[in-house]
Amino acid sequence: MPARGKFITFEGLDGSGKSTQVEKLARSLRAHGLSVTITREPGGTSAGNKIRELLLHSATSGLSPLTEMALMFASRAQHVHEIILPALADGRIVLCDRFTDSTEAYQGGGRKLGTKPVLQMHEILCGNLQPDLTIMLDNEVAFSVERARRRNRTHKSPRSEKGSGKDENRFEQENRAFFGRVRHAYLAIAAREPQRVHVVNARGTPSETHAVIMELVRKKLKV
Ligand code: TYD
Predict the structure, then answer these.
(1) Closest by Cα among 6, 43, 1, 3 to 130
(2) pLDDT of residue 166
(3) Which candidate, 36, 107, 145, 202, has a CA 20 to 30 Å from the CA of 173?
(4) pLDDT at position 160, please?
(5) From the CB of 41, is ligand 1 less than 6 Å away?
(6) How far apart, in whole angstroms, are the C-alpha atoms of residue 79 and residue 50?
(7) Which atom in ligand 1 lies closest to the alpha carbon of residue 110?
(8) Which atom of ligand 1 is nearest to the CA of 159?
(9) 103 in contact with ligand 1, CB cutoff 6 A
(10) How far is the CA of 102 from the centre of ligand 1 (A)?
């Protein structure tokens, strides 16, 4: 049986550059001969992608914060079961664009549900699965969110879903106070779990940020 793989998650505000960094890290790790699975939330499975569409489409209205949280976890529970655990059991490195910290930041902080219900749902629905390493890309709210909105307007993102004209704007329409709470909640998670969560300044160029991330991953994986 192969040794259990490693689970690495990426977190940050919309427009913090996560998807670019996930791709860059995957390329570097594969160049070292490692087996890498890239995935994301909400989504990552066929059922999860349907839930993603419901959650992110700007025409979806009237979802209560609890319903929103429940849907995030419905997508996640299936994702853990169908993709993440099997890949880890196979010895692969799983790079996941968002995980439960996103729910704690967006629904717990942004929507004001608090930390407790999120951690309880994580325990029940995801067996309390913890990433080996979480890379939290941090930047000013104004900078990140404006970048995400610009990307959606111009549709020039390398990320196919964002560049395909698909409407995934529901969260990006939230106001600055919402994203201020999201960032605050993220930084509180990092302060609570310094062993797992590493805050990386995302103001540099993509290559500079990648170099910092590579160093963190090298230490963790010993590659
Ligand atoms: P994502 O596609 O990663 O957006 P971006 O590339 O702009 O960062 O995530 C979609 C949105 O879903 C994002 O606004 C954050 C939100 N989200 C939550 O509110 N809670 C969650 O648990 C997850 C996974 C995402």
Answers:
(1) 6
(2) 80
(3) 202
(4) 41
(5) yes
(6) 12
(7) 19
(8) 6
(9) yes
(10) 7
Exposed, middle or buried by CB within 10 Å (0-12, 13-18, 19+), for 200?
A: buried
**So where are the chain's domains?**
6-221
* Token representation of residue 11: 């977190």
What's the confidence (pLDDT) of residue 158?
Answer: 43
Distance (Å) from CA 212 to ligand 1 centroid: 23
pLDDT by 10-residue block (mean), the chain, 223 residues: 93 94 98 97 98 95 96 98 98 98 98 98 98 96 87 57 70 92 98 98 95 96 79
pTM, two decimal places: 0.94
Q: What is the pLDDT of residue 165?
A: 64
CATH of 6-221, one of 3.40.50.970, 3.20.20.70, 3.40.50.300, 3.90.170.10: 3.40.50.300
Q: Specify the residue with its C-alpha closest to ligand 1, atom 14.
A: 171
